[in-house]
Amino acid sequence: MPSGAGAAGGGQGGGPAGDEPAPGLAGWAALVGEPEEDPLPDVEEWPPNRKLAMEKEVLGLYLSGHPLAHYQRELARRVTATTRRLAEKEEGARVQIGGLVQGVRRVATRNGELMAFVQLEDLEGSVEVVVFPRTYSEAAEALQEDAVVIVRGRVDRRDEEEPPKVVAEEVWPLVTGKRLVVALPAAGPAEVEGLLVQLRGACQRHPGTSPVVLVFPGREQALQVDARYWVTPRAELLRELAQVVGDEALHLDDH
After folding, report:
1. Which H or E element spans position 97?
2. Nearest to residue 101, comparing CAs of 149, 162, 49, 30?
3. Model's pTM, two decimal places?
4. Options 2.40.240.20, 3.30.428.10, 2.40.50.140, 3.90.400.10; CATH of 69-173
5. Can you state the percent helix, strand and coil of the chain, rounding each to 5?
6. The dihedral of CA 197, 205, 253, 177: what is its sign?
7. Paired strand residues for 119
8. 231-245 pLDDT tens trace
9. Closest CA to 249 of 173, 177, 198
């Protein structure tokens, strides 16, 4: 009977001729054959709004951009505080904040009037905005998800265990009185035609009252498109257009 040492040696190929060495990775590959490659199907890339939404939902942050990137300069001109700076404000302090409407929870009061609790996000964080019935009746149209708005109101810090809130006194769209200017890249006629088709489709998906102006390379005058293609320049629209012409080709200005 072989000793324990002999048995161990046989396991390493030193035993009787009938013992086979344990196969390594190469050995297993020889036994099972080469794995079959299953090519991944070709799928369309998610539109930018869905991509950003999934990043936020799964990771809790944006990786490929921020929905407010196009509005950063305009917001900086309009606000007196960011969401992060609200913690420095006293109870009842008047503030003007701005950002992206991430969610709207509408409830009915005892009198049957509608009010809303709005989650507003800027580039530094988020805050809950309380919109009582009188203000809500005037701001309901502006308070839609993915809209970019300005909120004027007062800081509510009565619950010391919760982050500050803002009680809204007035809400209006950031882009009121603005037009959307799109600078087209230098390209051949066929490529420009393709870009215009994509731009037209995006504009039709976001109808509104803001004019759209096209700037063609090498031309001194810009072209304002027909009113049928005017838009509501929400973050989702700007993300779609950025996929077509690039971020730097888009800006909002007074008309």
Report:
1. strand 94-108
2. 149
3. 0.56
4. 2.40.50.140
5. 35, 25, 40
6. positive
7. 103, 128
8. 888 778 888 999 999
9. 198
